[in-house]
Every structure is written in C-alpha cells, then in structure tokens.
Amino acid sequence: MQGLPPGPIANPGIQAIRAALYPSDSHSLYFVSRNDGTHQFSATLIEHNKAVEKYQKRPFRRGARSQTSIAPGGEALAHNKGVS
Asked: Among 1, 27, 30, 58, which residue's CB has the most CB atoms within a 10 Å radius?
C-alpha cells in the first residue's frame, strides 16, 4: 500500500469532540508522559516543568546541558547554562 490512507488524517472521533465540548471538572491543566504508558498530571506550570524534568529530561541526559525554564509572571524566561 502506498500513499495516504483514505479519508481525513487526524480526524477526531466522537469521544474527542465530546471531551472538548464538555471537559471534566479538574484542576489539572498539564500532563506529561512517564514513558511507561501512564501520565503525570499537574495543576500549575511550575509542577509541570518539574514533571517534565523528572520524566522526560533526566533519563536522557548525558553530561552538562543548557536548560530553559518558564514560570508564570514577572521575568518568565530563565536560561541556565550547564544545568544537568
């Protein structure tokens, strides 16, 4: 089989449409994969950034690298060179 599949690509199903129209009542606005089939949900951007560091960045680090962190309010962007 060659080329694109028949029909629209990334066409949302009825469950995705319902979830967008009627979201569940939750304080968790962010999520990140734990790379084991589960997810870590967070209520704040700061908690989310910590979860990204824990589950996405640390397992793959090899030596010192630059890191950019974003936090709400004030000076929102901080760049730390050599953070690992």
From this structure: 30
